[in-house]
């Protein structure tokens, strides 16, 4: 059943869509509305998010090897899709073909912050026949997803960022945040190799995570966009169809106020990037043309609205194409200073960006 509050929120989005008149330039300041879809128990770190074509959200947990499905249009609780019992936590996730996703897992210690050597794995999740069952009031699956192991990622340390490169041959790019390298993985054969390594992907000393390099990665129109958590930079570089460099990297922006960038999402026009700031507890909008235009659109340093956001993704339906879904770590690594240090459970927050997408 749809909750009344969420219905009103979605109705507001739909009404704006029917009445909004685009502005050719100088978009007016945006004031996004937010809606907390779900908050996991205290101690839960949500690492990444992907969106199905039907609008349902897939979220990975870092400290437990669990993949959850969340329907943002209903009041049903998250549904456990799969528990990857051979690993201790999940990291990146990306869709390669319709309802086929690649997920990376590893054995990460929240106590030491270290990853067990040779523990990283890439998995394929086929959701074609997986749907929420009406007989259980949409709280269980009618059929489980099909899970297959792609390959052990023995040469990788912390395979964090993940994006599709070529749906034609099921190739993905994987950013190793500890090594500062971007790998190319053929998910059909399991073969992988280092595709990109430069001074803007490399790992450097970082006060929160020790050593950190390339983090979020996304490809659009033969350009790879990527953040570097250690350098606090957001960069882009032209690439060949096989993912190899086709030119020099350039910095688009640097995180404001000494924060660090984590993951990000690109709008449909590839005009703006929306980057989560991690310790800044916010989402920063950056113009992709490199003019340096950037501003915080939601959240702030001293608010638990977005407590240490880790990843973002745009909705994919007519109802929510302009809604940004943000997941958070709850402040586990960088507590929110809000009348003292505060830590909350990992959050899934919907942010209506209609006024920002002019």
Kindly describe this structure.
Keywords: Signal. Residues 1-19 form the signal peptide. This is SMP-30/Gluconolactonase/LRE-like region domain-containing protein. With 358 residues, this protein is mainly beta. It has a single domain, classed as TolB, C-terminal domain (Neuraminidase), CATH 2.120.10.30. Helices cover 4% and strands 43% of the residues. It has one helix and 28 strands. The two termini are 33 Å apart. The model is unreliable at 1-28 (pLDDT under 50).
Oligomer: single chain
Tally of separate helices? 1
Whole-number count of domains: 1
> Could you describe the largest sheet, including whether it forms a barrel?
4 strands, antiparallel
Keywords: Signal
Signal peptide: 1-19
Protein name: SMP-30/Gluconolactonase/LRE-like region domain-containing protein
Key features of this structure:
358 residues; mainly beta; Neuraminidase; four-stranded antiparallel beta sheet; 43% strand; globular; disordered N terminus
Task: Compose a concise summary of this entry.
The protein is mainly beta.
Secondary-structure map with pairings?
Layout (H helix, E strand, L loop, with lengths): L3 H16 L13 E7 L6 E6 L5 E5 L4 E5 L8 E5 L5 E9 L2 E7 L14 E6 L19 E7 L6 E8 L4 E6 L4 E6 L5 E5 L7 E3 L3 E3 L1 E7 L2 E6 L4 E6 L11 E5 L9 E3 L5 E5 L5 E6 L6 E6 L9 E6 L8 E6 L7 E2 L3 E2 L4 E6 L6
């Amino acid at each position: 059943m749809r909750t009344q509050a969420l219905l009103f929120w979605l109705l507001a989005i739909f009404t704006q869509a029917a009445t909004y008149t685009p502005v050719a330039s100088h978009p007016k300041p945006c004031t996004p509305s937010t809606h907390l879809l779900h908050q996991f128990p205290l101690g839960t770190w949500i690492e990444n998010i992907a969106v199905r074509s039907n609008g349902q959200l897939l979220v990975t947990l870092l400290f437990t090897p669990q993949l959850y499905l969340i329907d943002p249009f209903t009041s049903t609780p998250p549904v456990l899709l799969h528990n990857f019992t051979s690993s201790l936590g999940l990291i990146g996730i990306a869709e390669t073909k319709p309802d086929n996703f690649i997920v990376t897992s590893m054995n990460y210690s929240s106590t030491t912050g270290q990853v067990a050597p040779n523990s990283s794995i890439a998995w394929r999740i086929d959701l074609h026949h997986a749907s929420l069952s009406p007989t259980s009031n949409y709280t269980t699956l009618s059929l489980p997803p099909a899970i297959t192991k792609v390959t052990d990622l023995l040469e990788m340390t912390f395979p964090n960022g993940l994006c599709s490169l070529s749906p034609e041959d099921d190739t993905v790019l994987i950013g190793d945040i500890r090594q500062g390298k971007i790998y190319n993985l053929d998910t059909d054969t399991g073969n992988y190799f280092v595709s990109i390594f430069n001074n803007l992907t490399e790992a450097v000393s970082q006060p929160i995570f020790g050593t950190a390099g390339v983090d979020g990665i996304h490809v659009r129109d033969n350009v790879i966009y990527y953040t570097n958590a250690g350098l606090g930079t957001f960069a882009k570089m032209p690439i060949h169809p096989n993912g190899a460099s086709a030119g020099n990297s350039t910095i688009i922006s640097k995180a404001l106020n000494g924060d660090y960038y984590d993951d990000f999402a690109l709008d449909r026009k590839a005009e703006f990037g929306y980057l989560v700031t991690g310790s800044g507890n916010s989402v920063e909008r950056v113009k992709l043309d490199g003019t340096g235009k950037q501003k915080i659109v939601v959240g702030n340093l001293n608010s638990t609205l977005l407590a240490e956001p880790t990843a973002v993704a745009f909705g994919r339906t007519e109802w929510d194409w302009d809604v940004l879904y943000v997941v958070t770590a709850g402040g586990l690594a960088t507590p929110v200073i809000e009348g003292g240090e505060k830590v909350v459970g990992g959050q899934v927050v919907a942010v209506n960006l209609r006024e920002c997408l002019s």
